[in-house]
Amino acid sequence: MDQPAPSAVVGEIVGDLQIKRRRPPPCAIVIFGVTGDLTGRKLAPALYNVMVDGLLTEGTRIIGVSRPQLSVQELASKLHDGVEQHSRQKPQPELWKKFVGMLDYVSGELHDDATYTALAKKLDDAKAKGTRGNVLFYLATPPNLFADILKKLAQHKLIERGRATEPFTRVVVEKPFGRDLQSAVALNDLIASFIDESQIYRIDHYLGKETVQNILVFRFGNSIFEPLWNRNQIEFVEITAAEEIGIEGRGTFYESTGVVRDVIQNHLLQVLSLVTMEIPASFSADDIRNEKAQVLRSVRPFSLVDVATEAVRGQYRGYREEEGVAKTSETPTYAAMRFMIDNWRWQGVPFYMRAGKKLARRCTEVAIHFKAVPLVLFKEEEARRSLQPAVLVLRIQPMEGISLRFVAKVPGEAINVGNVHMTMNYADAFKRPIAEAYERLLLDCMRGDATLFNRRDAVDRQWELIDPILRVWEATPGVELYEPGTEGPASAEEMIRRDGHCWRPLSDTAPGC
Ligand code: BG6
Asked: Cα–Cα distance between 196 and 59 in angstroms, integer?
């Protein structure tokens, strides 16, 4: 008899699990910072893809705002480069022509009234072409410009309170959302002085990733996992965001940001909240966001003293030679830390988080390590050594999927055990392309669905949790250098080993346990 292929799961789509989404209403998407890096890499490819997939309603317009003096054609050719390089669907002449037909451009300084007068005129034109007065302002600029832009929009009556639904005015802001708790609170207060919370969409692009959304479906759509999802069955959890790339020419930005603000304060704390939240009353935006906020409130804050033992920082060798970086820079490009959650479900379970650049391999995942079995049944030393506890890995990227490691008997007369893996890959299971996070998120803002966006209380709490680490590290130099292409600084290994645990290796040659 043929043996099934090892480690393979064939995905069966029972019905269509993808909720049939409605097309959003038409609107004017105004992008501040349209000539910047984010628009080229993410926004233009996402908008092009959703147009190609037929998800934009007739009448939708894209209006770029930026400083350079450009014609619409010049802007289009700039965006074409970004779409060519970064889009999952490459620009096709006819479709690209259609995309360019949606474009308009306002050049000007962002603090200059003339820019907003010109924008108001373009918005009137867009309304005449079918936007029904709906406007989405996307602030793809450095955060220090948010305040000026919002003030000017308000002065020119382009944003007004109470317009969360049609004809809507919504504002999308990019991270970093503040630099610490105090500045985030100030920014939130400023935004709240112009518009309602229901009009603001704080983007965390991790929440647009299919595999991140799947955390909830996996937990709450299968009856077999949720009963195990607690301190009685789980020994510890690792959340990893390892990148092979460095800072990719973003020296000035990164130097004042560092890995904690760039990835941990937002993306990884959001992943933590999805992994640990309680079961929501429904999948509605507020029910999900209430539960996420609730669990974040139970995460134990670090005291300033804890930082020395519960968090480590590293910097890849060569970072100080990057453009825009100080020769004596202490900015961490790697950080690892241990969170504890003081609630009924998670008391005593450590959550280890690590993120870094220029590491051995690109790998974003959540690894749930289950408790070991009592060893009474396994007398042989060899068997005892091989008997590793089960690990469930939610692979966010790359090789999106889920795998479960468990033990099985090695064929033969003796009771020998081996570790085996059962793996599900999205690409094989569902045979359909995975859309980029920004595609989903842009459509959701246009639809008015805030489920995948960060609410004010969660953002504030995330800063509160991270603030002690930033304060201690910024006051006391001591970043540990690590070689590019490795597992990161040795102190990260020491931190986790003190608890008798170890990280899942990034490279084949790493020690592991
Ligand atoms: C961004 C960070 O938010 O996320 C980058 O600013 C990081 O530094 C990126 O590289 C990682 O996102 P992704 O989707 O490539 O994992």
From this structure: 26
Instruction: Name the band, by pLDDT with cuts 50, 70 and 90, for residue 383.
Output: low
- For the Cβ of 174 lying below 6 angstroms from any atom of ligand 1, the answer is no
Q: Give the total number of structural domains in the chain.
A: 2
Per-residue confidence band for 21, with pLDDT thresholds at 50, 70 and 90 = low
State whether 289 and 369 are in the same domain: yes
What pLDDT score was predicted for residue 387?
A: 80
Q: Same structural domain for residues 315 and 416?
A: yes
The answer to whether residues 226 and 167 belong to one domain is: no
372 part of a folded domain: yes
Q: What is the pLDDT of residues 406-449, one digit of tens each?
A: 988 888 877 778 889 999 998 888 888 788 899 999 999 999 99
| CA–CA dist 39, 33 (Å, integer) | 7
Task: Please tell me whether residues 221 and 287 are part of one structural domain.
Answer: yes
Structure tokens at 87: 């889009």
Strands 234-242 and 363-370: antiparallel
Among candidate residues 111, 267, 369, 421, the one labeled active-site is 267
86 assigned to active site: no
Averaged over 291-312, what is the pLDDT? 96
Cβ of 365 below 6 Å from ligand 1: no
CA 363, 367, 369: angle at the middle one, nearest 5? 150
CATH at residue 125: 3.40.50.720
Q: Residue 327 has which token pair?
A: 């020769």
Report the CATH number that the domain containing residue 301 is assigned in CATH: 3.30.360.10
Query: What residue numbers bound the domain in which 161 lies?
Result: 17-174
Domain termination residue (choose one: 131, 157, 174): 174
Q: Residue 398 domain-assigned?
A: yes
Q: What's the CA-to-centroid distance between 201 and ligand 1, angstroms? A: 19
Q: Please tell me the distance from the alpha carbon of residue 214 to that of residue 431, in angstroms, as a whole number.
A: 16
Residue having the nearest C-alpha atom to atom 14 of ligand 1:
206
Mean pLDDT of 90-108: 97
In a domain, 182, yes or no: no
| Preceding omega of 167 cis (within 30 degrees of 0) | yes
- 487 in contact with ligand 1, CB cutoff 6 A: no
Looking at 124, 157, 174, the residue that finishes a domain is 174
Q: Within a domain: residue 12? A: no
Decide the pairing of beta strands 351-356 and 234-242.
Answer: parallel
245 CA → ligand 1 middle, Å: 10
pLDDT band at 510 (very low <50, low <70, confident <90, very high): low
The per-residue DSSP string of 427-482 comes to HHHH-SPPPPHHHHHHHHHHHT--TTSB-HHHHHHHHHHHHHHHHHHHHS--PEEE
